[in-house]
């Protein structure tokens, strides 16, 4: 796919539609644990550290190994680098656990749950911290795999334009956004997640972006 310096007005609106859809718009409230999902986005660790320092939860678990898109930035693993970043921001080392083996969202949740059980940590509520456009999939996945707990979702607060500028690769972000949208409908069929509402405007925006060539993250 040829990189696009400027999106057309229609496609820009479609990206914004998907961006807003994946934001669960949760009000973050105090919880037993914060779970930072590994990815290419170090903002996950920043958000988790900020919430910890505000007293939102007393313990963080960073979960994630590596993917082809993260191995260069985080050669020792996403969870390890996230932990180091959070410590640099003032989180005590003893307030962070790492789960360094997960390679997808389902494993992030199931292996974090297993780690906390092993550590004797009782969890009734959690804040799941992710990339902004991963919130809905994280929520649907955790609701399926860990239905006993109360879940809220959080990301580093920023607009779509701020995020695109921060990451520096709009095509990559948009392709991943399109891929996550597909997974919202496909993963429940496979038993990986619970079903989510899928409004007609989201369906139309997704189809136009697929037609425009943002398909590299489709399954």
Automatic annotation (TrEMBL):
Pfam families listed in its UniProt record: DUF218
Ranges for domain DUF218 come to: 45-148
Source species, domain of life: Bacteria
Query: What is the name of the protein in this document?
Result: YdcF family protein
Q: Which organism is it from?
A: Microtetraspora malaysiensis
